[in-house]
Amino acid sequence: MKKILITSLLCNIILTQAMTGLELAEKINNKPEPKDSKSLILMDLINLKRNKTRTSEMVSISKDNGDKMLLFFKSPKRDKGVGFLKIEDDDNDKFALFIPKLKKIRRISSDNQSDSFMNSDLSYEDMLSRDLGDFYYTIITEDEQFYILESIPKDKNSEYSKHESWVSKDELLIKKEKSYDKEGNLLKNKLFKHENIKGYDIVSEIDVTNVQKNHQTILKIKNSGIDVGIEDDIFQEKNLKRFEKFSN
């Protein structure tokens, strides 16, 4: 029995050592994801210097692992009706923002993806899905609970030089991440919580602190519908002006 246990442990060690960063990233990427979802999101913007917090409420409709998203602000009053559209594809990523007071749809170009999303600590780049082919991956270290996976963007226009992600060994979920600026200095600390719904591990909270600005954003995500059959034609710019239709 002891020989069997020792052999099993040695095999696990060898298999772990043999796994590459890309293979780990593929395992994370291959976890099952819902076809679509509807969510209510509370976003706290926290000025850590002044100890002040501002809270927004949003409703989000997404599909295809978040590659398509339509989002509306319900509060505070000054942001009510602001709409955000994201569509990702292999050829081009599309961002559009509708500001009711201006009555205009603003398209965000790839040159502006490092800009803050609605004064939060999330940039538009942070809101993109991470395609496997867009990064170089290395497992830089590990312990009993976590792999630490380094992801270096291939895109020279990225606002980041690298990410370091703490990936749980039991569930293959990213629990913590450090993101570094172009000069290699720590820019953001990120924490993630998950809940299991219908067999999917879904992010329920995102906590992002910009250590250079001393500012924090916390997103609390409550899913109200999973795999409900959302149609593709919802994700159009014209629907950014239809807050009343999609915000309930």
List the topology elements.
Blueprint: H1 2-18, H2 21-29, E1 36-47, E2 52-63, E3 68-75, E4 83-88, E5 93-99, E6 104-108, E7 135-142, E8 146-153, E9 160-168, E10 174-181, E11 186-197, E12 200-210, E13 215-226, H3 243-246
Please summarize what this structure is.
It is built from three helices and 13 strands, in the order ααβββββββββββββα. The protein is mainly β. The longest helix is centred in the N-terminal third of the chain and has 17 residues, at 2-18.
Q: Describe it for me?
A:
With 248 residues, this protein is mainly beta. Helix content is 12%, strand content 48%. The protein is built from three helices and 13 strands, in the order H-H-E-E-E-E-E-E-E-E-E-E-E-E-E-H. The protein has helices spanning 2-18, 21-29, 243-246, and strands at residues 36-47, 52-63, 68-75, 83-88, 93-99, 104-108, 135-142, 146-153, 160-168, 174-181, 186-197, 200-210, 215-226. The chain has a 13-stranded antiparallel sheet with strand order 6-5-4-3-2-1-13-12-11-10-9-8-7, with helices on one face. Strand 8 (146-153) and strand 9 (160-168) form a beta hairpin. The chain is globular and about 55 Å long.
Q: Trace the largest sheet across and list its strands.
A: 6-5-4-3-2-1-13-12-11-10-9-8-7
Structural class: mainly beta
Mean pLDDT: 91
Give the terminus-to-terminus CA distance: 60 Å
Given as residue ranges, the uncertain stretches (5+ residues, pLDDT < 50) are none
Q: Supply the number of helical segments.
A: 3
CA radius of gyration is 20 Å
What kind of sheet is the major sheet?
13 strands, antiparallel
Report the strand count. 13
Beta-strand percentage? over 45%
Pattern of helices and strands: HHEEEEEEEEEEEEEH
Q: Helical percent range?
A: 10-25%
Tell me, briefly, the overall form: globular
